Amino acid sequence: MADPVTFTPDRGAYLRTNAWLAAVAMAGAMVVLWLVGNPFVWTGAPAGLAAVGLRAWYLASEDLAATWDLSDQALIGPGPRNVVLAQIATVNIMGSFVQIVTKGGDKHLIKYQADPAATKAAIERAMA
């Protein structure tokens, strides 16, 4: 690999992922209220939406700034993350995330990828 490849988060993937999370939170909150016998089950929907919306707004600047660089030797992520390619056991796709599992059992997420299959393929090509 001649030049390093940078994996940056995609705003569209971030919004889609959080929309799905909000839908699950809305339904889950309504089910909990129904199970405890609350007559105002509908209040779970705006509560779930507000909770996920606030979380998404608060974390957007951090989540959308986290980049990963792939060289011919390692995958270098935000903070102290440095994964030597020879130590990667598996590369999995989880929605818009790409999960890296090392031979030592460490797990790392490359979050909010527009094309997680392409990200996975690039990492696997570098490993070969």
Quick structural gist:
Helices cover 45% and strands 23% of the residues. The protein is an alpha+beta fold and 128 residues long.
Written account of the structure:
The protein folds into 2 domains: about 10-65, no CATH class; about 70-125, no CATH class. It is α+β, with helices and mostly antiparallel strands and about 130 residues long. It has helices at about 10-35, 45-65, 115-125, and strands spanning about 5, 70, 75, 80-85, 90-95, 95-100, 105-110. It contains 3 helices and 7 strands. The protein starts with a strand and ends with a helix. About 45% of the residues lie in helices and about 25% in strands. The longest helix is centred in the first third of the chain and has 25 residues, at about 10-35. It is elongated, with a radius of gyration of 18 Å. The strands form 2 sheets. Strands 1-2-3-4 form a 4-stranded antiparallel sheet, with helices on one face. Helix 1 (about 10-35) runs antiparallel to helix 2.
